Amino acid sequence: MNKGQKRDWVKIILDNFIWLILTVLFTYFAVNVPNFTSKTNLLNILLHASVLGVLTIGQAIVLMTGNFDLSAEGMVSLSTILAMWLMIEPGSVVGTAQGSGLMLNPYLVIFIILILGTLSGYIIGVLITRLNMNGFIVTLAAQLVLRGVAMIVSNGQIMTGSPKAFNWLGGAKIYGIPVSVIVTLLLFVGVNYMLNQSKFGRELRAVGANPDAAQASGFNPKRTITLAYTIGGFLAAFAGWMLLGRLETAVSSLGSGMTLETVAASVIGGVSLKGGIGSVGGAFAGVLLLSLIDNALNLMSVDSFWVESVRGFIILLALLIEAQKFRYKPKVVHEKEPAVASDCK
Q1: Residue 302 and residue 321: Cα distance in Å, rounded?
Q2: b/e string for 191-222 if b means 16 or more Cβ within 10 A?
Q3: What sections of 210-303 are H helices per DSSP?
Q4: Helix, strand, or coil here: 93?
Q5: Cα distance between residue 256 and residue 186, in whole Å
Q6: Which contiguous run of DSSP H or E holds residue 336?
Q7: What are the domain boundaries of the chain?
Q8: Helix 179-197 crosses helix 199-209 at what angle (to 10 degrees)?
């Protein structure tokens, strides 16, 4: 094997390192954790990965522009609560969750929450790009506002009784496979193809790598970042629809903590926090890894406090792997960062 071939193999290994880790862990859990490879348990892993996966697609797109989104979990909360409020009857006990009494058609409610998510993402993008507001503060504030409105609407109570027509995305199955799993896989494949083959995908990476150079090449960084947040908002509402359909119950804390998981999944999958580098396909592997670990820890009856600690450790490990990979890779394969202008042709 000559040096060129060796460098190619090293590059392939580094680019797909997450899949190697995923394979090793899956094999370990399959051998050591009872019932881990049962059909029911594997479907449980994929069900957990479906909602997290949809949110991670939106997060990965925003991260590629060199930004991040803390608002997604707030939209999950509000979209689920608002959907229930629009569909169920008024409660009869003061101080409990109350439906609006509108009893709207479930398909109209789906349309309303998706539009709400899209509009919310667009407004966040405009605040960041047009008014030059700090992205961290804007998205954190948006998360608090969205979750706060959800708490007001639900009175902090659980809301149950979503109609069957609304629940099909999260609860229906095709030949024993949950529809939510199928839809999430199709989303990953479709979005990954789009970002790798379309002008929008090149524009995302160009803006993330160097906004000024991207603008000089004819791209519009403000428009691109706003569109990324808009897509993220739509996908957050979509994930809320999926989650509510599965649980058939809404509470204002739904989605809590998922923001960090989406960031961790994206980074573990090779999406750079600095922007310009990464793929949705890699983020998919990160989602599977987190879902795999969560499921295995639950089967092993690990205390919930330890589960949170493990999640935090995974996030730190993801940052370490990212830092070392991007430092080590150019030395081994003698790569240079591609010029933005040439990438944007």
Answers
A1: 25
A2: bbeebeeeeebbbbbbbbbbbebbbebebebb
A3: 211-216, 221-247, 258-268, 280-299
A4: coil
A5: 25
A6: none
A7: 53-90+99-343
A8: 70
Q: Are 190 and 284 in contact (CB under 8 A)?
A: no
DSSP secondary structure string for all residues of 296-325: HHHHTT--HHHHHHHHHHHHHHHHHHHHHH
Task: Kindly state the tokens that stand for 32.
Answer: 């050591």
Residues in the chain: 345
pLDDT by 10s per residue, the chain, length 345: 556 555 666 666 666 778 888 888 899 999 999 999 999 999 999 999 999 999 999 999 999 999 999 999 999 999 999 999 999 888 655 556 778 888 999 999 999 999 999 999 999 999 999 999 999 999 999 999 999 999 999 988 899 889 999 999 999 999 989 999 999 999 999 999 999 998 999 999 999 999 999 999 899 999 999 999 999 999 999 999 999 999 999 999 998 989 988 998 998 888 888 888 888 988 999 999 999 989 998 999 888 778 878 777 877 776 676 666 666 655 555 444 444 444 443
Architecture of domain 53-90+99-343: Orthogonal Bundle (1.10)
Angle at alpha carbon of residue 54, lines to 53 and 56, rounded to 5°: 60
The rounded distance, in Å, linking the Cα atoms of 59 and 343 is 23
